[in-house]
Structures are given as C-alpha cells and as structure tokens.
TrEMBL record:
CDD domains: STAS_anti-anti-sigma_factors (cd07043). It holds the Pfam family STAS_2. Belongs to the anti-sigma-factor antagonist family. Residues 47-137 form the STAS domain. PROSITE patterns: STAS. Residues 1-15 have a biased composition (Basic and acidic residues). It comes from Kitasatospora paranensis. This is Anti-sigma factor antagonist. Residues 1-39 are annotated as: Disordered.
Length: 137
C-alpha cells in the first residue's frame, strides 16, 4: 500500500510499511458491546485523538474521559480525528464542547481535524463546525 498524502499524517504508512497503531481504549456500552475506540497519538503541537465507532448517550461519558485524558497527556492543543465515527448524537457533541471549554480555560485549543459525513452533518447543523475549527471538506 502506498503512502497517500491526502490522508491525515497518523493514517499514513510509516517507513517500514506499517501504519502507526497505538493500542485503542475501548468503551463498553451497558448492553455489553464495544461501541467506540480511541487512540491518542503525540504530535509536535500536542495530542491527536482518533476516535472510531458510535458516540451516543451510552458511550459519551467514556468519550469525554478519553478527551480529558488526552488533554492531560501533555502540553499543547488537542486535535480530534472523527473520520471513523459512524454516529454521534447530542451527547457526543456535548462531550466534545465541554472538553473544548476546559481546553480554552487552560489557554489551549481543541480542534477537529476531520469528521465523517454524519458527524460533519451534526456539527454543521448545530454550528459547531466553525467553533471546533472544522473546515469545509
């Protein structure tokens, strides 16, 4: 597989042909299924948190904990990649916005680098896209 420069840096292959893959942290829903995964990757400007799966009222609390842990992981900004998030409701949006406020109170930023179509639609409808720095596709 070739390195696609149009992919975010954390999804590009490394020199040895492997894509970086920190161990995901899984959030288990009350029904017992795993619904969301998170990977924190250090960057030169802070921490990148890559989320995948569904963010709803069952998983939003764990997502908020992942966001807060990534924010505490080091100095700098918190960047989010939500490309692989297949569903996000108002609970998930609230978790992201709450951690954004915490970051700003500490003089830092939370920025969404990328989002899948469903998440982007939610962010666009609510006006969160501009607040979270999510640029046009």
């Amino acid at each position: 597989m070739s390195d696609r420069s149009d992919r975010p840096p954390h999804l590009r292959e490394t020199g040895d042909g492997e894509t970086p893959s920190p161990r995901p942290r899984l959030a288990q829903s009350p029904s017992g299924s795993y619904r969301v995964q998170g990977k924190a990757v250090p960057t030169t400007s802070g921490v990148l948190l890559v989320l995948a799966g569904e963010i709803d009222q069952d998983s939003a609390h764990e997502v908020r904990r992942m966001l807060e842990a990534a924010l505490r992981a080091g100095p700098g900004n918190l960047e989010l990649d939500l490309t692989a998030v297949t569903f996000c409701d108002s609970s998930g949006l609230n978790a992201v916005l709450a951690v954004r406020r915490a970051a700003e109170s500490d003089g830092r930023r939370l920025v969404v680098q990328a989002a899948g179509p469903r998440v982007r639609h939610l962010f666009d409808l609510t006006g969160a896209s501009s607040v979270l720095g999510l640029s046009d596709p």
